[in-house]
Amino acid sequence: MNEKQPILAHLCCAPDTLYVVALLQTSYQVTGYFYNPNIHPAEEYELRLKETRRVAQHLQFTLVEGKYDAGCWLRLTERFKDEPEKGRRCHICYAWRLNQTALLARELGISLFTTIMSISPWKSATVLNHIGRMTARKFHLEFLEVDFKKKDGFRKSVAMSKDFGLYRQNYCGCLYSQKARS
Description:
Layout: E1 5-11, H1 14-24, E2 28-34, H2 42-59, E3 62-65, H3 70-77, H4 88-108, E4 112-115, H5 125-139, E5 142-143, H6 153-164, H7 175-181
Parallel strand pairs: 1-2, 1-4, 2-3, 4-5
Helix pairs in contact: 1-2, 1-6, 4-5
């Protein structure tokens, strides 16, 4: 019997997790890492985490829950609060979350990591993959570069999450994206 290669996947929300982890499970032994100190307010964070737990139970993968430290995230990004979506603030946010994912991968002895964030139309897979490569190099790990939007990934994610009855947010998650949507 062939053992699947372990991978640590950074997870941002349940709807994206449902589609992407199911896809990853065809080739990898997935451990999920929900680390999102960017999500605002705390009630939104708790709702997204609760829904991600449901998906982890349904897909039967291990879910590691990171610390929710919104204060740290605000300090990291405050200087770029007026940046538009996909700007430098987002790049800092991606880098921070991928750095924490790589740290956990190393701690768990998992040499391969990725993020499911590239499924979002609000996220640049090119930027995420660049940051992932740089982070992997820094920690002597491998980063799985993917654009999960391809092959109708986002549309499939929306349909699957609707069928599963998942809460689907209408903004990226951070305070600044929430204000931009209001």
